[in-house]
Amino acid sequence: MFIFPQITQRKSVLVAVLLISAALFAVKLTPTIHVVDATPDLDTIIPVEFGEWKQIADPFTQVGLTTGGNDLASQLYDKIVMRTYANNSGDRVMLAIAYAREQKQDIKIHRPEVCYVAQGFQLLNKTNNTINMSAAKPIKALRLLVSNQNRYETVSYWVRIGDDYPAGGMSARLKILRDGLKGKVLDGVLVRASTAISDPASAVTAYEKQENFLRELLLSLPKSQKTILAAT
What we know:
- By secondary structure, this protein is an alpha+beta fold.
- The chain is 33% helix and 29% strand.
- The protein contains seven helices and ten strands.
- The chain has helices at 9-29, 42-45, 70-76, 112-118, 169-181, 203-219, 223-229, and strands at 33-34, 49-50, 53-56, 79-86, 92-100, 122-131, 139-148, 151-161, 184-185, 188-197.
- The strands form two sheets. Strands 2-3-4-5-10-8-7-6 form an eight-stranded antiparallel β-sheet. It has a two-stranded parallel ribbon with strand order 1-9.
- Strand 7 (139-148) and strand 8 form a beta hairpin.
- The model is unreliable at 15-28 (pLDDT under 50).
């Protein structure tokens, strides 16, 4: 016959105190202050025409914004905009913006280098870059060069979480944790510009055009809307 070990009253009280303390600590660590009260209407905020750029019919199907399908994207993001723009010179840039009102340890933005590889692309190169904006915090962006059979694509992107641009998954987790300890629920956005190219040698030129495109996009927005895409 199995005999349960005896638990003294003192031990029982100690266990109860520890459980209650753990519960109170968990409640204290649960973020309660939303940085953003409502999801912005990106369809309206992002203009179909700005500077020398104008929206056109999508010539390509853009690479998805998650490692899974559209169902996963709808779970991760509150709003998604995917468009293609062209200028008078015939340059084309594909724009993808994915916004999430809440960033958590288990639900956070998927980075393009992971999404592209998950969807059959090979990551050929990845470099850090800084996009300088006048009277604004410099944007910590990344450049990717990917390929899929005979198709090459250049990608310029950044991820904003709260008021920062974490460079990787671990940096994002630490940012979410630090602000979570202050009771804040951060919002986040992925801003991605991509271009299909035929020759990797033209990648640098493609990056520069993408970044000029993104600068013009930000400059076209009022300050209240600019902060949705970039930290100030």
